[in-house]
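Q: Hi! First time doing this. I have a protein sequence and I read that you can turn it into a structure. Is that right? Here it is:
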Amino acid sequence: MKKITFVLSEQRLHEQLSITALSASLKGAGHKTSLVFLQNNPLNKNKILKALKEEKPDFIAFSFMSWAKKHYVDLGYYIKQHLDIPIIIGGPAATFDPDLSNLKDNPFDAVCIGEGDLSVVDFVNGYKHGKNLAPLRNFVIRDEKGGQLRGGLINLVDPLDKLPFPDREIIYNKDNFLRNSKIKMFISGRGCPYQCTYCFNHKYNAMYNGKGRIIRHKSVDYFLEEILQTKKNYHLEGIIFEDDIFIIDKAWLEEFAVKYPMKLGLPYMCYVRPNLVNRDIARLLKLSGCHSVRVAIECGNEPLRNKILKRNLSDKQILKSCQMLHDENLKVGTINILGLPTETIDNMKETLRINRVCKPDHVSANLFIPLPGVELTFLAIQKGLLDEKFTSSKSTHHVSEMKYPEEVKRFLYPFKALFPIMVQKPHLMKICATLLMRLPKIILKVIDSGYRLYSNARFYPPAHFNISDKLRALRRYLALIAE
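A: Yes, that's right. Below is the predicted 3D structure, encoded as structure tokens:
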């Protein structure tokens, strides 16, 4: 039996489901897991080190997104200065960032490539620190001579029912905020078949070609039991289904729409894709107890949306899907990306216009984040908008690294900060265009964050929060936006 200690040194408003899934698989195989949880703060390195010494793990594990890469690389080097314990990493960043999978240039001992539920158990069972002679499946590991070995990919997990329920205890025992939150996240399936160039899924699908079904769902009964057990053990009044596309399997949704209201009946939020929404799907969502739906528009210019982003969505499909969801009295939220490679100021204004026609109850406007390994990032490099050394461990994977024309750079953040207000309060359009766009960035950030908080509270599944709950949520939210 081995002990694996996950390190999470960033604030979150929701559970990191990857850790709960991996911990469950490891525990199911007879190993021990634990979590060191501290906020993302350089002063916490000593506290993390002290906690790791107390835990005495056989392995240390990080699972992080690209934007947190530099923090975890620095933390890895710091730990290695004091402890000779193997550090393993996983997640999309680890899978697609060549700087992370090249073990000569970072402090990590092993990198999990792709799905880790089954392979992490094989790894823990077979890894010999400093004495590896053979590759391990789904892993890049250091060999005994200081080089590295890459194992082949195993097939995707199928059916998902053979996996244990996620180990929420590992998170909730260390984070009372998430434990006591009345809105929790679940995921019913895995996989997305689309080729959107800003997302890692197109690379993931190519990597796993011939390795099993990309689209997989937990059976409805299994999934409902997972939620019921969570509800039995923790506070639960509302749910966010974090699937890339919750409605992708109509037959599954039909069964879910019958059983979910009878066994749970909690209001939920989910994500949909406009081309998959029709009258039947909208009706099933309403019948099942859906409260709010998020629709990804991303870009208002149709040629850019389809030729550059490869969304293959017409304006008509987007507008029609939002209208059908509105017709079922579902709250509709839109998701947008601003600052896309080759996008002009006029293109961004087109995104504003189509959002206004959709009449959303919630608007999300995000700045383009260039992710390593994806097609849109390569386009940005090709167009001279991003440095070729983007994958360097010093990269922040942030919009600040984009080399926009000066007029776009000046326009971008004010427009992003005011975008939701300009969509939902069109009478403020002239004021925003002439006055608010000129405000200092710190004031724009306060407006952006404040309106987002107000809008989220009205859009998320309804749950009863007392004053103490609201204050805890506000503190967590303010800590996040301050980072």
